[in-house]
Amino acid sequence: MIEAIFIPDGDSLIPQPTASGPWFPGVQHGGAVTGLLARAVEQAPSAQPMMLTRMSVDMSRRVPMGPTRVLATVLRDGRRVQSVACEYEVDGEVVARATAMRIRIDDTVVPDEQVPEPWAEDEPPPGPEGIPEIEITVHGEDFVHNFTMRRQEDIPGRAISWLRLNVPFVAGEETSPMTFAAAVADMISSAGSIMDFDRYLSVNPDLSMQFHRVPEGPWIGQRSLVRVSPHGFGSTDAQLFDSTTSIGRSMKSLLIDPR
């Protein structure tokens, strides 16, 4: 039985087997990395409540399955806007980095009557109850096994997915909505959805995400589109949703290699 994705051990977090990705043995999944980075940003001290609105992640090298620490440094600690930098350490070596922005939360600034009606594109796609659950076919214990996933593809590379996290990200903690959302932001469709998984691997060395509201409810949805060039790279971008409306966007580069 899966207890959590990471287990605390002193000032380190020990990745469990389901923190791993599908591409290389002994390497953490990008969703595990981005979830812990978002957790570290949220835990950075601030003078008043703030929301993570933007995070850019650099994963230009493999992230091993070893004792992990995430070190967050507040670069600019303004009253309304805060900038945070994070280093992701495994066995004492920095293997990923992130920069993030947080904006103060103040419910008194914009009256409800001044909030514009959402665009039609902000309406969520068909909910998880209307989309079939997919069978997880990755061998072994992979990061996706921590989720219930429902997915529907109308044309190759264009998909609607809904994900629900079934275990704590870190043992002994309640997973915050933004940690969950950051992990899902990495799990938007990849080139594996349109190319032969047995012949090609597709990894994302970077990830950018922006949020304009905190997700509500147990499901996060995504409407994603994969674009691949004939030169060994591509990109994916997606709009993210909860059950009521859009919550933000995600974009990642794709490195495509033959196996």
Describe the protein in words.
Helices cover 9% and strands 42% of the residues. The protein has helices at 30-43, 177-186; strands at 6-9, 12-15, 50-58, 68-77, 81-90, 93-104, 147-155, 158-165, 200-203, 206-211, 219-228, 233-241, 246-258. The longest helix has 14 residues, at 30-43. The chain is globular, with a radius of gyration of 18 Å.
Summarize the structure.
The chain has about 260 residues and is mainly β.
Extract low-pLDDT stretches. none
What's the main sheet like? 11 strands, antiparallel
User: Which outline best applies?
Assistant: globular
Oligomer status: single chain
N-to-C series of helices and strands: EEHEEEEEEHEEEEE
Give the % helix: under 10%
Query: How big is the Rg?
Result: 18 Å
Helix vs. strand class: mainly beta
Q: Give the N-to-C terminal Cα separation.
A: 32 Å
Helices, by number, come to 2
**Into which percentage range does the β-strand content fall?**
35-45%
How many beta strands in the DSSP annotation? Answer: 13
Q: What is the averaged pLDDT score?
A: 91
